Amino acid sequence: MTHPRFEPFQDRLSRDIRNELSAALPLALAHNDLSPVQAVAARYLQQDLATPYVAYIEMRLAGYAKALAIIARTDAADVLTRALVFWDLGLFFEVHEILEQAWHGAHGAEKEILQAMIRAAGFYIKGEYGYAEAGAKMADRAVKALEKNRHGCTGFELDRLLESLRKLNPIPPKLLRQDRSH
């Protein structure tokens, strides 16, 4: 008998949990209230889930609560800064989701930067689940776009990110400047 593992690229339940939690996140962010996410979590936690699923849900709830507290405390209003709070907490799928919404309405260099940051988050998402080759392609494309639009990459540690992506470092760098994240 195999033991379940939380793996959203191979397991439908994992993917559903991840996607539904992150889909509730924008409403939670808009109102600085975790209720929408907690409702999704409660629905899943009422089921008889295996430990990896429960652990993922609990870890996400704790991370979301911490992110909302940091955002409220630092008055992080713009979408990139909010996403970077999630980045520094290691919540890369949420970074992807937050930035993707903004990316749809962006243009020019802003759109390219947002897409590059989505790809950078994708590198760490893929790496977490062992998809190194796909992650490396995302990292390479992110580096090229970030270098091209360097002038528009303000408010975060761009050089630290570029170095990490170039080296395919599996340990993600912290990107918010320290005065913003405490």
What does this structure look like?
This protein is mainly alpha-helical and 182 residues long. 71% of the residues lie in helices and 0% in strands. The chain has helices spanning 12-31, 35-45, 51-74, 79-88, 92-105, 108-128, 132-148, 158-166, 178-181. The protein is globular and about 50 Å long.
How is the topology of this model organized?
Blueprint: H1 12-31, H2 35-45, H3 51-74, H4 79-88, H5 92-105, H6 108-128, H7 132-148, H8 158-166, H9 178-181
Helix pairs in contact: 1-2, 1-3, 1-5, 2-3, 4-5, 5-6, 6-7, 7-8
Brief description of this entry?
This protein is mostly helical and 182 residues long.
The unreliable regions are none
**How do the SSEs run, as a string of H and E?**
HHHHHHHHH
Radius of gyration: 16 Å
Beginning-to-end CA distance, first to last residue: 45 Å
Can you give the helix content as a percent range?
over 70%
Topology, number of strands: 0
**Could you describe the largest sheet, including whether it forms a barrel?**
none
State the helix count: 9
Key terms:
mainly alpha, 71% helix
